[in-house]
Design a protein that fits this description.
There is one protein chain. The chain is an alpha+beta fold and about 400 residues long. It is built from 15 helices and 7 strands. A hairpin with a 4-residue loop joins β5 and β6. α9 crosses α11 and α14 (about 365-375) crosses α15.
């Protein structure tokens, strides 16, 4: 029997699967087609090697057409003529392909990590992390270094290069980033998608955790008293954008630093008196956009900032790059210098969030509504996703109470 497309198309399913065999020479393997009870037609080659009958599949018809099946059969015949088992040969080929696909270099792993965080981390964190990797890690990784060859001593060398130049906090961030990179690699190789597949990175342990050193820690306890709030609000020697940021951050109820400092004109709807923080600037992206009501005191500040917005519409534009937002370090350093000048306990932009949380409690806003306003209210899986306009009434009421409190404090 010789197979034809017409013959194969005409084959019908039966109560039991059956096999048709094409004519051919015994030592070359015989091309067959098996028809299952469901009607699936599968090409295969039956051959004998070392007095054992074996079968190797070629694929289902018509995904594998007759011409392709004959070509694969011819390749198998060549192997058999050289006394090579086609099944073993196929397994060796697959192993080689898997090994080849698994050969990700350390630099490629860093690229993979950047892709991984691009859809999971906040935009500001992504940018900061990519810059940190580019500056402090990538230049010190050899092009041909494999992830499983990366050692604790190599990691220490990278971290302490930063530490020894006096940038202890930056060194801590480098260590934290390396730990996240190795965790990503380990988690990927052990994911369900990689089950029974070769490791892409083959890192066995996250040894970065064994690298420890002391760094200054922000205990997270600093907040401004009403007296300090009044002093900062009415300061006439703070840089313009620094003071405008402080005022706006307070009036918005203490949203996260980059959510306000990285804002654009388009985020503010003055007609409806709302500030929309898009998901890409929110710490937990899955929650979607977060809307903050605007109080009357905030409106003139926002209008003034809009008039001086950057080329791309950024509310706090970079001094030298008209399309970029100024770096947070600009206001942090300005605040520290001002505090030193006025002999006031130092604080940083992040402490304004804690100030709002603390003083809003004194203003009579309960914890639930403070949490709602600062995006701390939804942590359970069932309520991570909620409508962007949920709790608007409660948020407006909280902002109004908070505006009155600030007004009384700064008089």
């Amino acid at each position: 029997m010789n197979f034809t497309d017409k013959l194969i198309k005409a084959l019908k399913a039966k109560n039991k699967r059956y096999v048709l065999t094409e004519s051919g020479n015994y030592g070359e393997g015989r091309l067959q087609i098996r028809v299952s009870e469901s009607g699936t037609k599968t090409f295969r080659v039956q051959y004998h090697l070392n007095d054992k009958r074996k079968v190797i599949g070629l694929g289902n018809y018509p995904v594998v057409d007759l011409k392709t099946a004959r070509s694969k059969h011819a390749e198998i015949s060549v192997l058999l003529s050289n006394n090579i088992d086609p099944q073993e040969h196929k397994q060796e080929q697959q192993k080689a392909e898997f090994a080849s696909s698994a050969m990700r270099t350390m630099l490629e792993m860093l690229d993979d990590f950047n892709v991984f965080i691009s859809t999971r981390w906040a935009e500001s964190t992504i940018g900061r992390t990519e810059k940190l990797i580019k500056r402090n890690i990538t230049p010190f990784i050899a092009k041909d270094l494999m992830p499983d060859e990366f050692t604790i001593d190599m990691a220490r060398d990278i971290i302490y290069r930063v530490y020894n130049r006096g940038a202890k906090e930056q060194a801590r961030l480098v260590r934290s980033t390396l730990m996240s990179i190795l965790k990503f690699a380990i988690d990927f190789d052990n994911s369900p998608e990689q089950y029974k597949k070769p490791n892409l990175y083959d890192i066995k342990t996250n040894f970065i955790r064994d690298i420890n050193f002391e760094t200054p820690k922000n205990k997270g306890e600093r907040w401004l008293s009403e007296v300090e709030l009044k002093k900062v609000w009415n300061a006439d020697d703070l840089p313009y954008y620094t003071q405008q940021y402080i005022k706006l951050a307070l009036l918005l109820g203490g949203q996260r630093v980059n959510e306000v400092y990285g804002s654009y004109v388009s985020d503010f709807d003055l007609e409806n008196k709302t500030f929309t923080i898009p998901a890409n600037r929110i710490k937990v992206k899955q929650r979607g956009d977060h809307i903050v009501p605007l109080c009357e005191t905030a409106i003139p500040i926002i209008k003034e900032l809009m008039q001086q917005a950057g080329k791309a519409g950024q509310m706090f534009p970079h001094r030298d790059d008209p399309t970029a937002t100024a770096h947070v370090s600009t206001i942090r350093m300005a605040i520290l210098r001002w505090c030193e000048k006025h002999e006031m306990e130092p604080f940083n932009p992040r402490d304004l969030r804690r100030t709002c949380k603390t003083l809003m409690g004194k203003a009579g806003i309960d914890k639930i509504n403070r949490d709602i306003l600062q995006q701390h209210n939804k942590f359970d899986v069932s309520s991570v996703h909620y409508d962007r306009y949920d709790y608007m009434k409660e948020k407006r009421q909280s902002i109004e109470v908070w505006e009155d409190f600030i007004y009384c404090a700064i008089k």
